[in-house]
Here is the input.
Amino acid sequence: MAAWELALALAGSFVAAYVGSMLGLVLGTLRLPLIVAIAGSPLAAAGTNIAISAASAGAGAIRHARERRVDWRLVAWMAPPSVLGAVLGALLADDVSERVLYAAIAAVLVWSGVDLALRPVAPRVRERLRLWPAVAGGFGIGALGGAVGVILGTLRMPTLIRGVGLDVKRAAGTNLVVGFLLGVAGFLTHSGGSGVDWPILLAGLAGAIPGGWLGAKATGRYNENTLRLALGAVLVLVGLVFAAQAAL
Here is the structure.
């Protein structure tokens, strides 16, 4: 493998981790086409990408936790059903049309992105958080992600903000912790076979870990309005990527 390909994997992982961690996302969906192109194998790319996603989410989660932007009670409620849903989704993936799944994810992401960007951006934080959307949303989003092989933090963020009642900054930290746990579970599943390209993984980790840390640090520099608008724009972008995959 050429040095420039590894450098490209490092740079792409850094950018995706920085932007994603700042907004509470993993953005593995945007990184995956780059990893596929470099690895030359969709199977190896999937396992490699989810490992990079886990590292990126972990680095960002640690920084968010230090800044007290993680709701650990919500993590305890949301992570177990998310992992369970991901396992069931992976087991049932062959029974559901991948195009239908991609189209459904695209529709929800685009709607959520436009909703976040265009609604009045004054925070609507709940003093008493609702836990049932975290449990139900975690399971459903985990199942969708397990079926298509991605973590889908882009869907959990709107759930945490609109359904549960978190502000954007605490939702970002909480979402990254859940994403990290899902990424670890996915990596352990893939690493048992030939689903990891280790040179690309090492290059990706070299970019994703500092990118995730620095991105989470940047979250505190922006106000709620800016973060919500940026998050809405990224959700629409990722939604369009899923829509393109559904059309292919």
Q: What stands out?
A: The radius of gyration is 17 Å. Residues 54 and 184 are 6 Å apart (CA to CA). The chain has a mean pLDDT of 87. DSSP finds ten helices and no strands in the chain.
